[in-house]
Amino acid sequence: MEVTSLPIKLQPSNIRPIAFRILSKKHGLNINTDALAILTDTIGYKFGTDWKSVRSQQFLEEIAKVWKIEDRGLFIDGDGLKQVLKDMNSKNGNEPKRAHRTDTLVDITNDGNQNHTHSHNEKQTDLEDKNVQQERDDIPINWKDYFKVVSPNNQPTSIFDKTRKQFDIVFKNIDDKDKRNNRGGKLDSILTELAKNLPASIESFNNRYYLLSDRLSRNENFQKKSLISLSALNSFKEGKTDSIVGHEITLIKNMLGRDGQKFLIFGLLSKNANDEYTLEDETDNIELNLSQACKSQGLFYSTGMFLLVEGIYSASGGNSNQDHGYIGGCFYVSNIGHPPSERREISLDVYGNLDFLGMHRQIAPVTGEKITKIAKKFKKKLVQIEKNLSNHKLIFMGTDLYLDDFKVLDGLRKFFQKLENSIIESIEDEEGQLTEGTNIPIALVLTGSFVSKPLSVTNSSVSNITNSESYKSNFDNFTSILSKFPNIVSHCKIILIPGKNDPWQSTYSLGSSSLNYFPQSFIPKVFINRLEKLLPKGNLIVTWNPTRINYLSQELVVFKDELMTKLKRNDIIFPRDIQQQEELIAKNDQISNEERINNLIQNKNTHLPSKIKQARKLVKTILDQGNLQPFLKNLKLINLAYDYSLRIEPLPNVIILNDSSFDNFEVTYNGCKVINITSVVSLSNRKLNYVEYYPGTKRFEFKDLYF
């Protein structure tokens, strides 16, 4: 006999602490408002005045276990909780009964036959669910459903929650997006957008800090018991294993009162009002003395980056001791480095294999704030399909595709003719049946700027109209050229990514890279309406910069910016670097020519070209920082409503940089393949530059075409 207490009316605030302790802290689940209200009513009816008892806590434990067994994700929503409660009641054979004043005792033994019936129905339901799942697994997957271009305005919003150490992902509502697009310049809408940007501006660096801190907490080199200092890591690379000592990351506020001790701290590098370098974490900030700092090689250093700094804290010194609420003193830096990046598969596994691009809604329909999780079994199936489609390829044209340059147009004609002939040959080889041949790309990615001079507003309205018409006529000429190659038009998607000279950003940036506003919106369709009419419906995709391409299990990030120039211009030169350079020059002056030649011969196999070293520095810097723009606000302009689109954490499979200021390169770091494509046409000769990517084998082929 189970005694059922009289039902009571509880408030969600009564149940929230218990639910947080059991569901969130113990099981890593998060319950939303609707589900908490349902859970409150259920516990009030089921346990009454005993809602704090052990039985009610065991009831919550059972809910958590069933939720995990059914693999419903990290968020408990109302509809899902109702189904779980229904399943639990079916198993127990006892529907939740509200205890009446005339009948507060419920005899479960009287429902023995009912229990047998529920057990039989449960087995039958489980068998039907297995059959449905088996049928779903047997349904062939069309790769076209998983080849999508995801712009920042269509990408789900993802914000890192420092408390749960998980991502909050919100899928955008199409109706809300349309309302924003139709705001018509109204003052209230503008003020609303500004009000949204204010908290986003505050949280932008906080989100980066907590995300990188979480990554460091998983790195074995930064565990409390087995941590290695930066200087020890550098010595270990040089073969000096005797210098390895234990160390752990310390919060800045915890250094107070520990004068003369050695610490390893982590935070944001910036400058204070006295133009001194400072490091700031979640607790405080401290002035840095970099006179003896030894940096980790092969990386760029700039304000706005999150860095690991090792050194000695001194309570005296520094120029900001008089500030209130400031720890005071100075941190004498001995070593400085970046937080090491993490492989994609490790990050995805830690964060529950979340669908950051919103590609899998057809598998698990998404409503509201529910997060979709990608099953590992399904992901393996997508990988297998990729391998079977090894002939698929995407073509990325070189950047700065100036349509007002006759040299570029001549190169495009030559390229289109070559591609048209290869498609015809592929079709003829299959007797008119189009197959997934190597000569038919599934998409052509064209990256701007599409005009050599920025489209800008002038004092004369007539000139302004002329500029717009001239820009539109460039795309009309491109359409006329493309129309002469019907097979390309029929079989290839065209993806347009804007550059710094394209509208409407160019009207205020005037083509200046320092005034680029990221992410940059797509090219207005008023300029490309003829191209849109030429191509079949859905074959013209105008997207943002940066943008992401999802191909089955792979995530590709395409970004247009002069990153190398920006990193070189803002790279910090440490006093120790100058000292080492002077010592090296003095040492070389003392060496005879014969010894210098012998040293060059001995090191010729280990010497790397300067271009390769710089490419590796760029790749390692942005991947370690986990962001495409790791700078302060004075070096970049960011639309904070889409700040998440610049984050590359977890690492994508591929990053395609379109930096015309640097040569082509291909570098792989921690499983992430990063390439750079320079200008589409070389200035010194008539050579067209493009890259072919085969996602089935994850292989890039850099191509040249002389014309």
How many β-strand stretches?
A: 26
As a percent range, the share of helical residues equals 25-40%
| Oligomeric form | single chain
User: What's the CATH class of the domain at 376-568 and 609-706, please?
Assistant: Alpha Beta
Measured between the Cα atoms of the first and last residue, the distance is 91 Å
Shape: globular
Q: What share of the residues does DSSP label as strand, in percent?
A: 15-25%
- What topology, given as strand order, has the largest sheet? 5-19-20-22-24-23
Major sheet description: 6 strands, mixed
Radius of gyration: 30 Å
CATH architectural category of the domain at 376-568 and 609-706: 4-Layer Sandwich
Given the structure, what is the number of helices? 19
- The low-confidence runs, each spanning 5 or more residues with pLDDT under 50, are 94-136, 174-187, 239-246, 364-371
CATH topology of the domain at 376-568 and 609-706: Purple Acid Phosphatase, chain A, domain 2
Mean pLDDT: 82
Given the helix and strand composition, which structural class is it? alpha/beta
Biased composition (Basic and acidic residues): 119-131
Keywords: DNA replication, DNA-binding, Nucleotidyltransferase, Nucleus, Transferase
Family: Belongs to the DNA polymerase epsilon subunit B family.
Organism: Candida dubliniensis (strain CD36 / ATCC MYA-646 / CBS 7987 / NCPF 3949 / NRRL Y-17841) (Yeast)
